[in-house]
Amino acid sequence: MPTTFRIDGSRIHDIASFYEVMNDLLMQDENWDLGPSLDALDDVLYGGIGALREIDDVHFVWTEHDASRTALGITATRAWLQEKLERGAPFDTARITTQLDDLDAGRGKTYFDLLLEVFAGHPDIRLELA
What count of other Cβ atoms lies within 10 Å of the Cβ of residue 13? Predict the structure, then answer.
């Protein structure tokens, strides 16, 4: 039987609050928090850390995901990319500029889309949007 974690979409208002929710779910037994990073989330989803330690069958249910999709949509994504662009190195500014252009043209991926891709990269983890 899978271990189910509920991502409470009503608590997600921006990128930082998404990671707060994930820390509450997954990092309670750790002495450090998951930072606001897609790579860090990807690493945690591989297991062996926090609440995913020694669990093979994992199911996430993302409630009120439509609210999260909006909160993590174009505006939040643009701000996230713009911050990276302003920081410059070590970020690939040419790639970020292209991502911003794609976002403005309506064909870019939002932060919500990128999160879904991270979860999809873990076929042993089920994500249900509810």
Answer: 16
